[in-house]
Every structure is written in structure tokens, then in C-alpha cells.
Design goal:
Structural class: alpha+beta
Strand content: 25-35%
Oligomer: single chain
Number of domains: 2
Number of helices: 3
Distance between the termini: 121 Å
Largest sheet: 4 strands, mixed
Radius of gyration: 38 Å
Number of strands: 10
Amino acid sequence: MRANSRPHHRIIVLSGTGLMLVLLAWLAAATATSPLDSFAQCALAGYTVSDTNPPICADSHTVYLGPAVSASPAPAAVAAQDFELLVDGDSHSNYPRGWQVITTQADWVEYWSAVHAALPTLPPLLPVDFSRLDVVALSEGHEPTSGYSLKITEIAAGPGGSVVDITESFPTITCTVTPDPPTNRYYIVDTAKLSAPVSFRLTSEPRQC
């Protein structure tokens, strides 16, 4: 009887680990034969990236430049500036709570009349030289009792703007307050011309009685 001369085919079954090794070997070979064409690919391939601006990555044949990083601008310097207290009292009015910068004589006259509208006689207008000064005016707003206060603790100005720090205190249960009449504390200063924009930072704290 004649032997069957048809060739035999061997089937190799790979386990999960074996198949993974074959795939990794194939990927490594593909990567090794793929040319780099960008800084990103050079960096991903593990070549050294310089600590420069722009960064540099180089393989054995080519130098690649990465994206340049824009330098962050230095923060604008601010410095505390002096201010002079003009008024620290109670307007006894319904003038709304808030803080404002007054830069002209006309606005100063209008504010002075409005904040003292509840008084039977308008107090004399305080002189301010608006050619070199601004006025910063704070108003507590209507409060039902005494024991409230507010003040400016610092004014800082620089090329990028100005910041006015305000401290507000309120009565606690340890304080003796009077309910009549209601109060509306106000606090007014003048200071050298402020650079815009002007922002306000408020700190509230309990009053120590």
C-alpha cells in the first residue's frame, strides 16, 4: 500500500500570554522601522527632551523643536498709599449700603447732599483738591441698632489697579446696644489719585465689647 505523500500542517495554539508576546514583538518591530516626523513622536519614543524654550528632542539623525512657551508676565507691583480721614460718623439716613470712589467736585457735591439728606441742616462741604486727590466713601446702610462700624484699613495702588481693604464690625450678644434711633455709619477718606480699576475687599468681624 502506497504511503500518503500529502504534507501535514501543524497547528500551533498560543495561550493568551503567548499571543500578547507576539503582538508586542510585532509592535516593537513596527515602531523601530517607523521614521519619526515630529517633536511629539520623538518625545514619545523616549529620546531626551531639553529644558529649553522651545524644548528640543533629537534622535540619531534629526533634531525636532517643540512648542515655545510664552513667558508669564510678572505681577504688577502694588504699594500702600496714605489716606486722610475726613468723616467717621453716623449719617442717620437711609443712604444705601455700599462703597464708592469720587473723582470730581460735581460728584462730591452730589454725594455730600445725598448722604446727609436726613439732617435738618446740610453740613458744610469739606474741601478736596480733586486735581490730585480722590475720595473713597463707605456707607454701612440702615441698621436697627447701634454697635456697627466700618473703616478703611489699607489702600494699595499700582499700575494694574487699586485695592481698598475695608473692615466692618458688628455687635454680638455681649454688647450693649440702643435700638433708637437706627444708625447708618459712614466713613470717608481722601487719598492720592487711584489707578483704575479700583476693587474693594471686605472683612467682617464681631465687635469685642
